[in-house]
Every structure is written in structure tokens, then in C-alpha cells.
Amino acid sequence: MPKGIHLDPHCEAIMREYRDNLPWFEESSKKVYQLLKETMDKAGLLTAALEYRVKAEDSLAGKLELKGGKYHSLKDITDIIGLRVITFYIDDVDKVASAVERVFEVDWENSVDKRKALEIDSFGYLSLHYVCRIPDSEYKMEIQMRTVLQHAWANMNHDTGYKSGVEVPPRYLRNLSRLAGMLELVDDEFSRIRTELTNYRRQVRSLVESGNLDDVPLDGDTFRSFMEMNAFEPLNQRIASVNQAEIHEVSLMPYLELFKGIGCKTLGDISNLIKDYSEGAFQIATFQIGLTDLDIVSSSIGPQNICIAYLLKQGSGKAGIRFMFDTLNGKSESNDMIAELIMNQSKDLPFMHQ
Description:
354 residues, 2 domains
């Protein structure tokens, strides 16, 4: 028995039941943790943390010393096993709860939705607490669901003694209450921004699919949607056919900054580059690989040579080509030699004189 704790015979019997079943609780905690983790993964729910523990002996003894009379047996204690799911966004708490309900039997009478609290200083305690039955047993466990900010707030309050029975001077309570309100607003704002970004991406995808590319500003999300259209595929296939080569797919996201750097502001601008400079890009690529036995080409061969053709036709010269390779690969003296070589190779190609 932990030092300084005195229990009556009834509570001593509960403690013996706990000790006798401790190995089973420890094994069960691992199983329910794994089941909960798999459930989160299948539901596509990203969590900041997923924690579990078995109630320590001194913690249980202290609980029984305070209110052991309300428990008939260990089966009445709802948090012998405890799990905590910490989400990034406040609206994910309900999604986690829904997933929990699908795999565990929830004791609704003992479960508590502390988010319904109205006090401004209760932010860190707005967790959703489900009491569930441990599978294949009559024992219970508690699953807490809260956000990262709520979790940080609760831990901070625990460290300062707030909400623990220690009296805190009014001026500190006022500041804590103000901070609680601010954090609650931040939690709500994070969720609102995520929702708006999700809606924006849906709108962008719809615009891209409709073909209204001039109305779509060029950014990371819109460029990624544009890549899903395989806009460079016809040119890549045409180039690859010169040597009957295979196309090795690579990410074209590095070209986002390059397209911005040469003045593209919308997806329509990139679409126009493809239309206006694909022939020049084909001529450059054919000159480069036509006399080789190269049988694999990168999917970046199309956009790279479109940019080269554009820069050459615009009179950007060697400096423009070097800028392109510096942007794509990082600054290097070798980029200067590559730019010089491309200038020499391309100067007599037909597209340069059209």
C-alpha cells in the first residue's frame, strides 16, 4: 500500500482485485490502443498524439481513500485503463468520437461531454470523455478526446495548481481566464481556416476541370491540380517516341517556382506556353536525344524544354537559361556551362527563325 494512505477492508479488497488483474489490464491496454490506432488510420484521421496507460497503484489507492464507498468493486471504476486522443483541430474531436463509437461499447450514463461547459476559464477541460467497456470483459476504460491547445492548457493549469484546489489570487485568475478565451478562439479559427482552404481547393479543382484556366491563380494547390490533368503528357509522348523510350514519372512541383519566375500568374499562362512552345520544345529535345540510344526519359523533359524554348524566343539568352537551372537545381557553376551548351545547340533550330 502506498505510504500515508489508509483504506478500509472493502477498499483493500478492491486493491487486491486490481493487483490480481494488473497483468491482464496491461495486456488489454495495449490491445485497445492498437485497435483505436487502426480505427483512426482507417478513418483517415490525423492525430497529434494517441496515448494510453493503466492506472497506477498509488493513484487508485488515493482515489479509493477519497471516495471508495461509492464503488462496489473494481468494475465500477471507469478509468483503470485510460486512453487519450489529441487532435489538431476542434472539429476532429467529433470525428474521433464517431470512430470510437463504432468499435467500442460506450457507457453513455457515465460518459461526459465537458465541451458543454459555459465558464470562460474551463477551456482546457472541454475534453470529450467516453467511458467504454473493455472488450471481452466487464471492466471499463476511459477515452479522452481533446485538441492540442486544450491539452496544453490542461497541462499548464495542472503545473500552476489551478483547478487543483490551490487558491489562486484573483488577478492571476483573470489573466488565466483571458488566455483561455483567446485559446478557444484560436482553436475555432484553426478549424475555420482549414474548412475555408478545403472549400478553396474544391473550387480550384472545379475550375481546372471546367477548363477556365485563365481564372485560376497559380499557386501550389492549383498547380498540383493542373498536373493531375497530365497537360505535358502529349509532348512527353511525342519526345519519347523519337527513341521509343519509356517515360519515367517524376514530380513536377519544382517547376512551380520556375513558371512563376518567368512570369506565369495563372494556369492559363502555363497552358498558353504549352500551346505556343511545344514545337520548339520538341525540336530542342529531338536534337538532344535523337542521336543517342537513350531509352528512358524523365516526365520533366516536356516542361523543361518548353521553358527553354520560351526563354530563347524571348531573348533571355544564356542568363535566362542559367536562371532556369538555378531555380530547378540550385545555383551551381555547372549551370553556366549547361546554359552555354543549350544556346549553341539551339541557335540553328527552325523554331528560332520563325
